[in-house]
Amino acid sequence: MALSHLAASASRSSSLLKPLSSALSLRRPISGDNSPLTVETSVPFTSHQCEAPSRSVETNPKELLTFFRDMALMRRMEIAADSLYKAKLIRGFCHLYDGQEAVAVGMEAAITKKDCIITAYRDHCTFVSRGGTLLEVFAELMGRQAGCSKGKGGSMHFYKKDSNFYGGHGIVGAQVPLGCGLAFAQKYSKDETVTFALYGDGAANQGQLFEALNISALWDLPAILVCENNHYGMGTAEWRAAKSPAYYKRGDYVPGLKVDGMDALAVKQACKFAKEHALKNGPIILEMDTYRYHGHSMSDPGSTYRTRDEISGVRQERDPIERIRKLILSHDLATEKELKDVEKEVRKEVDDAIAQAKESPMPEPSELFTNVYAKGLGVESFGADRKEVRATLP
Amino acid sequence: MLGIVRQKMLEQSLKKIPPAVSVLRSYSSAAKQMTIRDALNSALDEEMSADSKVFLMGEEVGEYQGAYKITKGLLDKYGPERVLDTPITEAGFTGVAVGAAYYGVKPVVEFMTFNFSMQAIDHIINSAAKTNYMSSGQISVPIVFRGPNGAAAGVGAQHSQCYAAWYASCPGLKVLAPYSSEDARGLLKAAIRDPDPVVFLENELLYGESFPVSDEVLDSSFCLPIGKAKIERKGKDVTIAAYSKMVGYALKAAETLEKDGIDAEVINLRSIRPLDRSMINASVRKTSRLVTVEEAFPQHGVGAEICASIVEESFAYLDAPVERIAGADVPMPYAANLERMAVPQVEDIVRAAKRTCYRSVS
């Protein structure tokens, strides 16, 4: 009873970390602590124009349990979104991230909320790792007032400026120059922070990416370009879209690192390395070798261009949550039952958030005309029939 | 010996010719004259001085002193961290500038001409204009995109297009088009101070033209409101609404019309979005006749929008159909005679105004 109360409050608080450790401390003071632990990444890093970081990653039980919980939450959230979409409560585009959770959690573990992240449309889990709540996610997906963009953005336009999460972008590849711009502003403001600009293997061939990379390298911007290579740009496999699918090498004069994106600890190590590099030497590319279980979006079954065996193979061999589960169990940081209980809690959190989101009303009609400008100057705007519907922009 | 005498005579005769400048000074009125170029340069200088978040970015804005010398001297004054020369990659550097604006600094991006802005138009529309709305007010985009727009002289089809109508159709953008030096200073300062993305359309052929500027205009706090047009010439018989260079043509047309007993009111739009519909409608309700003038392609243009506004708001006041004078509906030709036919001339505006007055146009 007390546990579910704590779990429910987690969805309202901005931090995913606190409730878990306090929940566990009720029953097991040993796990959820900060005693150092060193774990080897699944595979070594491959580098381009730089020296790869070590395979040995420093972590601790608390972090591993947080990884497990956060990824389980994200997994559950995306699967629930799938059901909501099929129930027609979510409309339009819905691009799901299940399978790729390790990139979001590993990255967040290496940085602070003062570092910036910008990504493309597969943004639900990145938003959550930046501190967004489940309610904000589901309400936004359903177009309700409690959504992070008050229902006016939709799946592809989640933002959280107070944790330096800049979206959520619908135009493939455009987020990369924008991310380099964030890095420019961080350097201009002398903030000693970095920007992670995420993009997919599909976007990796965009010209504007190379334009932005050139500028970032010339001006030594603290920009980290992260290619989330899930091997398919919509329905086009990487080898059919890129003459050179070695995306970590595509920066040419910009160093790069290839990372097992299904290993949260490898992701964390790479992002830590990249942050240090970017602050001193300018841009770097990280290629995260990852995989999405769903199709490109909810309109894509995901099976016309890849085999079911391939998908289930990855799920069996490389699933990021299973990897952390095995790690936790092998290091005796929690029992199987405790981990299953975490998954149950997380499921309940998600269900509660959905119920709450369903209660949230749709935006008021007057919201059609708000936020067109930051400073509307009292000008007029019009509805479909301008003699019927007019508004003054504040 | 002869050479020295000749030289002395030359010096004496030169001394007798008063230098042109001082003649003008002694004969001109108290108001100072300022070129558009200097107006823009001083506006940028003052805004950069007042707010350390303002910086410039564009091709040749730094060491070259600006392709049209608008940013002359600013690199020396503010340094390479605030005046940035970019590679020739509009999509890339515009995206970088918009991202910087997301973070809260204030870029002023120069497009060498707005023709090249088409390379970056996705960032202007989808990354800049729409973000405040999509984020429900979380992320505003305090950026200015400026540069020469419209026809120059003999630069051909790819370098002569006017983009006012395209950008002004997009909610989330503000689009300004100065005519005089007062406009240039006041509107650019307003644009830089504005928290929203502003497209600032200059005109290459106006850069060297001088206009009188009062002390108020020269003050560093001077600013003009966005969204308000200006009546450049009061009149009662026909309203002529124009922007940028065409305002000058409209004023010349008004002089010609006056000789024929037609008293034209000339409106300088200044702001294409927001459009000052109330001022234009008030003027047409007074005169009952309207001629719109633009250099741009005619279809779906600024004149069409103004005409629609009048028909919707002031139909009963019209005594004649609205007339549109615009650029020819063809890509800009190079040959001088064809180019002349492709842009509005003063006589076109006069003719259209006479048509609204049902006067014979011979």
TrEMBL record, chain A:
Claim: Oxidoreductase is one of the keywords in the record: yes
Top EC category: oxidoreductase
Q: Specify residue ranges for compositional bias: Basic and acidic residues.
A: 306-316
Region of interest: Disordered: 297-316
Superkingdom of origin organism: Eukaryota
The yes or no answer to whether the keyword Transmembrane is present is no
- Which molecular function term from Gene Ontology is one that the record holds? pyruvate dehydrogenase (acetyl-transferring) activity
According to its UniProt record, the EC number is 1.2.4.1
> What keywords sit in the KW lines?
Oxidoreductase, Pyruvate, Thiamine pyrophosphate
Which one Pfam family would you cite for this protein?
E1_dh
What reaction(s) does this enzyme catalyze?
N(6)-[(R)-lipoyl]-L-lysyl-[protein] + pyruvate + H(+) = N(6)-[(R)-S(8)-acetyldihydrolipoyl]-L-lysyl-[protein] + CO2
Annotated Dehydrogenase E1 component domain residues? 69-365
- Gene3D superfamilies in UniProt: 3.40.50.970
InterPro entries annotated for this entry? DH_E1, PDH_E1_Alpha_Subunit, Pyrv_DH_E1_asu_subgrp-y, THDP-binding
* Biological process according to GO: pyruvate decarboxylation to acetyl-CoA
**Assembly behavior:** Tetramer of 2 alpha and 2 beta subunits.
Q: What is this protein called?
A: Pyruvate dehydrogenase E1 component subunit alpha
Species of origin reads Gossypium darwinii (Darwin's cotton)
UniProtKB/TrEMBL annotation, chain B:
Q: Where in the cell is it found?
A: Mitochondrion matrix
A single GO BP: pyruvate decarboxylation to acetyl-CoA
What's any one GO cellular component for it?
A: pyruvate dehydrogenase complex
E.C. number, please? 1.2.4.1
Instruction: State the protein's name.
Output: Pyruvate dehydrogenase E1 component subunit beta
User: What are the entry keywords?
Assistant: Metal-binding, Mitochondrion, Oxidoreductase, Potassium, Pyruvate, Thiamine pyrophosphate, Transit peptide
One family from Pfam that matches here is: Transketolase_C
